[in-house]
Structures are given as structure tokens and as C-alpha cells.
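Teaching note: in complex prediction, the entire set of molecules is handled at once rather than each chain in isolation. The prompt given to students was simply: 'Predict the structure of this complex.' The entities are:
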Amino acid sequence: MDAAEFRRRGKEMVDFVADYQENIEHRRVYPDVEPGYLRSMIPSEAPLEPESYEDVLRDVDRVIMPGVTHWLSPHFYAYYANSTSFPSILADLLSSGIGTIGFTWAANPACSELETVMLDWLGKMLQLPEDFLSETQGQGGGVIEGTASEATLMALLSARLKTVKCVQESDPQRSEADIISKLIAYTSEEAHSSVEKASIIGGVVIRMVPTDEHFSVRAETLEKMVAEDKATGFIPFFFCATLGTTPCCAFDKIDELGPICNAENIWMHIDAAYAGCAFICPEFRPLLNGVERLQLQLRLPASKTDREAHEAIDESRSNFLRQIGFDCSAMWVKKSADLTRAFQMDPEYLKHENQGSGLVKDYMHWGIPMARRFRSLKLWFVFRMYGLSGLQAFIRKHVELAKTFEILVRDDNNFEICAEVVMGLVCFRLKGSDELNKALLKQITRTGKIYLVPCRLRGRFVLRFVVCGRTTELRHIQEAWKHITELSSKLLQNLFDHEGKEN
Amino acid sequence: MDAAEFRRRGKEMVDFVADYQENIEHRRVYPDVEPGYLRSMIPSEAPLEPESYEDVLRDVDRVIMPGVTHWLSPHFYAYYANSTSFPSILADLLSSGIGTIGFTWAANPACSELETVMLDWLGKMLQLPEDFLSETQGQGGGVIEGTASEATLMALLSARLKTVKCVQESDPQRSEADIISKLIAYTSEEAHSSVEKASIIGGVVIRMVPTDEHFSVRAETLEKMVAEDKATGFIPFFFCATLGTTPCCAFDKIDELGPICNAENIWMHIDAAYAGCAFICPEFRPLLNGVERLQLQLRLPASKTDREAHEAIDESRSNFLRQIGFDCSAMWVKKSADLTRAFQMDPEYLKHENQGSGLVKDYMHWGIPMARRFRSLKLWFVFRMYGLSGLQAFIRKHVELAKTFEILVRDDNNFEICAEVVMGLVCFRLKGSDELNKALLKQITRTGKIYLVPCRLRGRFVLRFVVCGRTTELRHIQEAWKHITELSSKLLQNLFDHEGKEN
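The expected output is the structure of the full assembly:
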């Protein structure tokens, strides 16, 4: 395919994408395919000679589309969907077209520098304390990680290394392995599974902190656990707080948890992968309050002396903003050296003359993968094409639609709301057994008209309804509720008939 | 931006990308900017109100392009560049347009299933043993990781977990921490720095294996180190072989190393991030020989009994094929459960009814990040639009051009070739001091006409010339050599004049 053909095919693909998104709501949101459907539809090996582009595109319609779960559909209410936006798609196309791999500054200065400035823009939109910004020439700064899981893992691994060094400063004889075996991480029992995964990768014990009646981690609970663990010779080193948990969008009380982490030399990482983007609205920003109170002293854990050693780091990150689409998870740290020192490698082939200048950022030291796409272009395009006001409007619309859905649920005596509706997530269930609710969800999934996933709250099976779509409007919410109540009425009727027969 | 505007802007962007790539060779390949150049060119915060698309696109030319290192330029000979191709860009655009996040099968069945089949296609192109394919309904299969670094890390972490479990089976009292402190990984002294990084993340010791005169790891060297380490109570558990090292494209002798790893219960991971793609050509496939001889028995390390326990895994992976562009690193394993069991999490919100069927793959368990783009589309488009023959032609052309460059270097008495030219990399230097060669590279970088990076071979500073570009032709190689010799002649003349004065 030469450039002339690319011009033609590329424009067709732009229309294909536009058509797809314009007509997406008429598609079945959850596909009607059986496991293994695809293999028999295509050859078992790659062709020896080139095929025509027409054939490939025809197969997209024939083979791919019937098996796609349509994340961008207004009928998609599952997980915490990252929507995307047209400016983000354009920026991604530009990124593919430039085809850069930006591991060091020299590998692409524009890629490295735009990332630094965009994370400052975003930090300011979130009203992060200045310590987290790069422009203040302090020690902090932001980075784009591929996913929230990677951000949490980076934080935990960096905290592990830092704590090992701290302990060894006061007790040089102690081996790394021995120290690591005594480390304890903490997170909410409601935290995302990626936090536990990070602890397994890091080879450290993690304890799940029980939550209060609002599903929030409170200071006294964490404090008690930390005290217990210290008393038995363990070293508390890491706490991952969540702002907007996956099951029910609960908020840990970071304003009371921060001081404990400071006092106990615990690295606090704030996972705000879902709710973080809402903090650009002044009315939601108070949920992030406390981030500025986190102290900058780390005393040696398990040390006899109490001298100051390193600076603590706190972080906040998010799959920021939903308009940006996937693979762009922002993370900030107060002291970037704690990240970069952890895993810095400098082979000859990656050296460049501006390396030691302190003026450039080699982002390969800030994450697990070394190579990276030019992702800051997405942030730049989206921030400019929407403006802060446009992005705020999106957040507010989603929250408003969720509140509308909440009212519909509350007005129906067969249903109950299972957690406070703070943002775009509504947790609800039929009054009755888990089996009944599982049967309802199964019906919803089989019908394929809307797509939801469940969660467990206090052991009960609960349905999650997340408003995240760029094109989701009031009518979609109303239709969805009508559909749910129709299915549930049938279920309840069957149950009633069945019970009638049994009596 | 609505769909109508996206249609217009998207088509403009397609032309922008086509124009960029068509005219790229007239650009300075390495940018002439100072660290920090970008910040002053754009505002210090995001706009409150939306800006016009024209302004954004104008700034791409004004702000971004002057700071880009042009990886797709035919004058780019640095690192091991991943080129990209028009079919890959189209597939990426489609992936952005669908906007899916495929962590489980249910999250997008097409995404999960196409990945499985494409890795089989690629495995067959590479003539991998059947154990590595999914279609054989065995225990093996392939996965797309974001980067080669992540693939190596996943392998090392899975091997760590597997070894800990093995040891604990025979010695249940032994703690995980104690076992991990005794684990030893091995890799070539010439291996990519990401292998060492993986060992730091995994918290295990790594030993660098010295290479022979061809920069290859040989069996007897590894065998000796393993014996030494076992004698002092350590547990050898992981060896990362390299086929196509980063400094000079050397090949570890996997045909002789495999049997040792089998005998010693060492998980062998083959890093072929650069050279792997060439194994689709019959003339290069012998370099992968030995992969089929790896055994399927793992005996308990440090165990008194010698009973069989698990199956060993070997892997081969590559940033496969250069036409596919970045963030698509293929990895195969013989027993996928060793990967997936290592870090499997199953929260309620990720469960789906086909989970336990054995028919579907939830790729979130196969890597570090849980979420993933629809990357197999790139493989599908590229395989079909080029055909195996077209992809082989690319590899052969690059190798041929590299051989041509080698001849140019050999014909010049001022220069020497520093390592055997097997594929697209030529390692060369001016006969003389490291300082002289550093001065030459500095001149090359400053001039910005071509871009190379250095390496160290046996302590000496060496220049690397990599032919990887989709559009690199004979005339570019000739121009590059002319440029290098012009700069070196000046340098040598200056040196001569200077020495003349001193005498």
C-alpha cells in the first residue's frame, strides 16, 4: 500500500469509523456469539501473497463486528467504560502516523516535553498542590502510564525499594529478602483487584482494610491494623487509597488517612482511576481534599533512631479524562526520583548528551515498559477541543443522568438502591435473593440490548449501572430502565406463578 | 466535534500523515531543539473554552514537528527502529474507532479471539513447534504484550512463582521470602537492559553470563555458573536467552542452552525482540533451531526426590513484525497456565458465564496491565495486506542493504567492522580511540542528517547502523556513508593537523 492508496483507504476508514459511531445504538451492545466463533470464519494460516484491501474490510464487517462488545454504544453501562472522542481519535491517528517510540528525551524531545506540560495542565485542572507539578522546578511531576494497574504497580515497587533502603540505612546487615518478607501493604477490601495483583508481583503481603457503612476506609481502622502489624515485627510500607471504588464508587477518607501514612512512614498512593476526572469540577474537588496535607517527612521504619531520611510520596492518578480514551493513565508523584531511581538502567545505546542536565525527562525510567507511544497528543487535542468547561459539562451530564436513573429505581418498589450515588454509578438490585438478581442479569445479557456487570456489596449480588458514554442521553436511560423493568416483571411473575403452584 | 466534522478533519489528518511520510526524508531526522524548548511555546494551562481545530493543527506544525525525532525517516538508523506501515495505521485507526478495552473474553469476544488466531498464524509463519499454538488444544498459546520489557517481566515473575511453589512442595516449611532470596536468574552480558530491570522488579538476583568471541552465550559457561550457584545453596530458576542482542545482534546458542535449562529446571525465555521477525524467512529460521528440543519436564529444584512436577515453559517473543508498528510484542508459552495462574484475580465485576469453559481466553491474566487495546487488528491487516512473501521481502531487503553498507565500511581503511553482520545491523568504528569515535557520533548527531546511536563491545565505543526503515533504499545507504566519511575525514584531518603542530 503506497501513500496514494493510504490517502484513499484512510478516508474510507474515517467514514467507516464515523458511520460506526453514528449508528452504533442500533447494534446489539453485547454480541450474540459462542466461544470460539471466530476461528472457523477465517483461514488457519496467513496468506502467502497479499490480499486486496476490499477483502480485509469486508471481513471486518463479516468476522469482527458480530463479535464486538460495543463499548461506545449509549446502551453500554458496564465496568467503568472509558469513552473516547473524535479529537482523541485524530490525535491517535497522528501518533500512529509519526510512529515514534519515546523512551528517552532524545528518542523524541517533543513527546517527552509535551507529556511533562500536559500533566502540569491536568494537575492544575485538578488543583493538585504545586509539589506535584514539574513547572515549579521542584521534585514532583506527572507521567502517563498505560493503565491504572501499571501506575499502582510502579508505586508499590518504588515504595518497596525505598523502604528497603531506609531500613538498611539503620540496619546495614539486614538482607533485602528479609526486609521484603516483613513488608505489609494495605488497601480497602473494596479496592480494585489490580492492587492485590501488584502486591503479588511485588512479593509482599497485602491486608485488606475493612470499610465503614459507606464502604470507605477510615483512619482508625487502618491505624489499628498498622499498630498490630508493627507490634508483631512487620513493616507497614504502602497504602493504596481509592477515590471511587469499582464496586460502588466509594471514597476512602484521605483527609484523615494521609496524616496516619505520614506518621507511619507509609507511601500513600491514591487510586482515582474512575472518579479522578470529576475533580476538575469545583463541586467534586472536595473529595480530593487532604492531598495537600500529606507531609514530606519519612522516618525510618523499624528504626531505633527517629531521624528524617527521605521524602514521602503521594500520588493520584486516573484514566483521565473519559474523552481521552484508553491507554492514558495519568500519575503524579511528589518526588519523581523515588520512581526513577528504583529501576534506572543506562546502557550505552540509550545515553544522550542532555541526560544529566536535569532539564529533560527520560520517561522510560517512570514505568514498567521502556518504550511508549506519543500519548500526550491525545491529552493536548482533547483539552483544547473541549476546553475545561466542555469537559466539566460531560462529567456533570453523566452524574445528572445517573441521578435520574437512581430516581427511577427508587420509585419502583420492587427495587432497592445499594449505595449512595455520588457520580455516574448506580448500584441497585431487585429486593429478593441473589439468585433472582443473577437471573435478571442473565436475561439482560442474553437479550443484548443493554450491557451491565455485577458486583458484590456486603456479600450481596448487586447490579452496576454506569453512565459513561459520550452519546448517552436521557432517552437511553429511560429506555434502559423500561427494558430492565420489563424483564424483571416477567421474572417476578414467573416466580409468583411458580410459588403459587408450589403452595 | 460531531461526526460530520470528524469526517472532514479525519480526512485532513489522513492527508497530513500521508504528506508527512511522503516528505519525511527532507526533514532533519534528529531535531535541533534545546531541552525545555516546548514549554514556552504553549500556554501554561488548559483553555477554559474550546479552541478551533485549525489552531490545534497549526500548533502541530509549529510546536511538535520541530521537536520530533523522525523514526520513520529513511535517514533513521538508530536503536532497532520499529517501522510502521499504512495497513497498520489503518488498523490502529479502526481500533481507536471501536474504542474497546479487551481484558476478558466478554469485554470483547472478537478482540480476544482474533488475538488467539493471529498468534497462531504468526507462530506458524515462524515454524514454532505445535506446543506453542492454541489451535492444537494443548496447553500453549500466544499473547500480545505491550512491549518486550513486559514480556520478559511476565516470564520472570511466572517462573519465580512456579519455582517457589515447586520448592514448597518438597519443603512446605520454607517461606516464600526465603526461597526468593535464593533464586538466581541468568542472562547474557549483552542482553537488553530490560532483563536486568525485570530482575530488580522481581526482587531476584541476576547474573550476567559472559559471551564467546561471537558475543553468544555458550552452554558450558552457563552450566559452570549454574553448578557454582547450586553448590552454594542458590536456586537457578530463569534464563533469558537473546536472539539478536541490542548492541551487535548476536545469537545465544539456544540449541545447546535448551537442554541445560531442561536438565536444571530453569525456565528459558527467548528474547528475539529484534531478530525474531527474520525467522519467517527459511534462510534465517535455523537461528531458532533448538526451540523444539526444549523438554517438558520440570524436576523440583533443591529437592531430594526427583519426581516430575510441572511442565517447563519456553517462550519466544518479538516486537513482531516491523511493519506492525509499536506496542505489539508477541509472546508464546508452552503452558499458558503458568502465566495465568500466577496473577489471576476474579472479582465479581469481571466474571462472565463462559469463564470456566476452557474455550475462551481472558488475556488480562496474561500480562501486567489488565486492560488492552484491540491490537490484533494490526497483525491481521498487515499479514493480509503484505502476505508472508511481502513480509519476507522486507526482511531480505534490509539485510541486503546492511550487507551493502558493510562492504562500504570494509572498503575504507579508516574504518573497521566490529561484529559479524547477520541481519540489518552493522557495528563499525573508526580505527582509533573511543574519543575519536565519540567525536564522530557527536558530529553526526549535531548535523542531524542521519541518526545513529552507539554501543559498547568489549569495552570499546562502537557505532550502530541499523537498516529498519520501510522506505530506506540503496541511495539512502550510499548518502549516509558519504556523509559519515565526509565528517570523519574532517575529524581525521583536524587530528592530523593538531598532531602535526604538536610534533
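Point out the following to students. The first strand of chain B starts at residue 141 and ends at 145. Chain B touches chain A through 153 residues (CB under 8 Å).
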